[in-house]
């Protein structure tokens, strides 16, 4: 498994993963289908995307970008993580996050923070195993498909 930066040839596979994993029923963020133009714009807006490449098959992706748009917060990045269902539970998320630690340092980030839905026990367990600390719990902060969920904010210094 190779962790590397996304290439144009990966767009179709990354979109398949993003659009199958993130839906309005499990995420407050995605209420539409992502397109190649969305990926290009994301990359153009200072985002980076890592992919897990298994001999030409993209097993997962990890987009990351500065958490804040202002200079005083440019040392903090945030990320998303999406793993193809056929590769879930095989350590791909861990490998992508390890890749993030390396590339985030190269891009002058010293903190990594992210939001996760309180009910996403798999992600929470992974983040804690990777050294992230829970810094904030916002009760009933997210409404997904008519159901309220806690929003958790995790952080790690790198």
TrEMBL record:
Residues 1-158 form the N-acetyltransferase domain. One of its GO terms (molecular function) is acyltransferase activity, transferring groups other than amino-acyl groups. SUPFAM superfamilies: Acyl-CoA N-acyltransferases (Nat). It holds the Pfam family Acetyltransf_1. InterPro entries: AcTrfase_GNAT_prd, Acyl_CoA_acyltransferase, GNAT_dom. Keywords: Acyltransferase, Transferase. This is FR47-like protein. It comes from Streptococcus urinalis 2285-97.
